[in-house]
């Protein structure tokens, strides 16, 4: 643990993920607010969603659950952070410590490299879902269709 100011607050990390996921799903601030209203006692205003994305509010367990449902993601995905240290009220935790709490630690699961593999697979999934790569894959499929079936060698 180190002093304050070395990283980003956990609420800011969550806010960045909410903004990223909302943009990926092409939802407006208002649409996300309305979607949250299906799970919470009332919808969030545009301003409330904007504040959340800027890390300017704390989240209840119910709100995190509703956000995951509305954004079609998992609760741990909302907590993902880049390599910044994460600030908690008592001080900062390292990126490695922080990533460790996002993994499902079953009692019988070996910890030798399994966690690193899970993180790597998640990161690969993130990269493969980037719009540019999705477009490239589609271009590749079209190219294959235009080229037609490969001639059979006899």
Automatic annotation (TrEMBL):
PROSITE patterns listed in its UniProt record: HTH_CROC1
SMART domains: HTH_XRE
Gene Ontology terms, MF aspect: DNA binding
Record domain HTH cro/C1-type: where: 18-78
Name under which the protein is recorded: Helix-turn-helix domain-containing protein
Pfam families: HTH_31
Domain of life: Bacteria
InterPro entries, per the entry: Cro/C1-type_HTH, Lambda_DNA-bd_dom_sf
């Amino acid at each position: 643990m180190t002093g304050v100011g070395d990283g980003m607050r956990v609420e800011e990390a969550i806010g960045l993920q909410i903004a990223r996921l909302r943009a990926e799903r092409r939802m407006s601030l208002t649409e996300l607010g309305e979607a949250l209203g299906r799970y919470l006692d009332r919808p969030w205003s545009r301003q409330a969603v904007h504040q959340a994305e800027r890390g300017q509010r704390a989240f209840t367990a119910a709100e995190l659950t509703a956000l995951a449902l509305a954004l079609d993601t998992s609760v741990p995905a909302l907590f993902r952070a880049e390599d910044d240290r994460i600030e908690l009220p008592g001080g900062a935790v390292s990126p490695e410590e922080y990533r460790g709490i996002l993994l499902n630690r079953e009692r019988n699961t070996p910890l030798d490299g399994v966690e690193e593999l899970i993180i790597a697979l998640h990161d690969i999934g993130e990269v493969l879902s980037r719009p540019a790569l999705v477009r490239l894959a589609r271009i590749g499929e079209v190219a294959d269709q235009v080229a037609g079936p490969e001639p059979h060698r006899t």
